[in-house]
């Protein structure tokens, strides 16, 4: 998409060598892919890097303490890694409701007791309209009166969307149910459904406890994490699970290990050995499509953008004669090219006016985030470079690295053309959608210094052959 333009040095070739598992027989462990992409979900939630993986370590250790069987542990394992899969779906609404950076609001979201009128009020007052006058803050707070119970709809949206993503990835019903009930509390005062006690699925109870413990452990340390679990036993959390957690208090190696750099490899080892899931090529495609949905849900102005870019890129590449494997990699790169935008505030993404230089800088870093997220997955590393180059220009004045034409592979050039075409064809906060001829006129003027001329001409050919190449179809649902 056309966005606004930084710096940045080339990313390292292999930023996480210790966390890899070598593919066997052409497949790759599903946990490697999901754990790596969970870092994108951490970005969206404003959580410290690795929050989901560390939550997985805590939740799986609790599961071991209570003797959970292998089937349940397998479902729990993926529920813990995917618990925030729906987090992007409420980002725009959070930003609008609070008049604030959605990441900042969400940083303390998991620790806030929304059932307490006073505590939820304090959270709201602390986060609305940062830097605004008291009157402006008061007006923003007043807007919550018409929004219903604070947090209920935002959490409902996130939980339902997360469950949908789990089903899209063909996870078990138990995994989806755990994600849907993540924010229910033992005393029935959780959200969105107010389930109580054993009405809440056991896996959801474990995940809810594990994520709160991880949040407090990362910010305040071991004692604070155990303290909040103890204080909320019988309120937020199942007392039996809190007792299981406290039985771990003497295991210093476990708690210290939450902070080391090898957490992802250790989390992968917790998947029940006789139930290890693998990802063949078809499943990798489904993962790319599912996370494209997560990415595009971040802003109402990017609805199906990633799928649109994949559609255009595929058509252009076919004109250029790409083979089957190259087409598959390009489609995946297109679907995931904006995964780094999950780390950009909606106050920037949805801003109707001109961005400040500081806001421009934040936007220009999203391809760098894309690279580092995708490069965590051994199978996705070859396409990480392509995906992260979608804002580079032929004259070397693009971002995030300013690569000249000689260093831009054809796949990256195709992706840049597809990205611009879909972005110009869609509505944006600062303008309406443009008609096709105007889109092509703008792109034609930029062919050479900005866009690759050969790839642009291939786009024109593809559009002339639209029915044959599938460009007359609307962006379709994958499931």
Please report the total strand number as a whole number.
Answer: 2
Principal-axis shape: globular
For the biggest β-sheet, the strand order reads 1-2
Q: Between the first and last Cα atoms, what is the distance in angstroms? A: 25 Å
Quote the CATH topology of the largest domain.
Hypothetical protein af1432
Look at the structure and name the CATH superfamily of the largest domain.
Answer: Hypothetical protein af1432
Mean pLDDT: 85
Supply Rg: 23 Å
* CATH architectural label of the largest domain: Orthogonal Bundle
CATH top level assignment of the largest domain: Mainly Alpha
Helix content: 55-70%
Number of helices: 25
Strand content: under 5%
The domain count comes to: 2
> What profile does the largest beta sheet have?
2 strands, antiparallel
Tell me the structural class: mainly alpha
Low-confidence stretches: 1-24, 473-479
What's the SSE pattern?
Answer: EHHHHHHHHHHHHHHEHHHHHHHHHHH
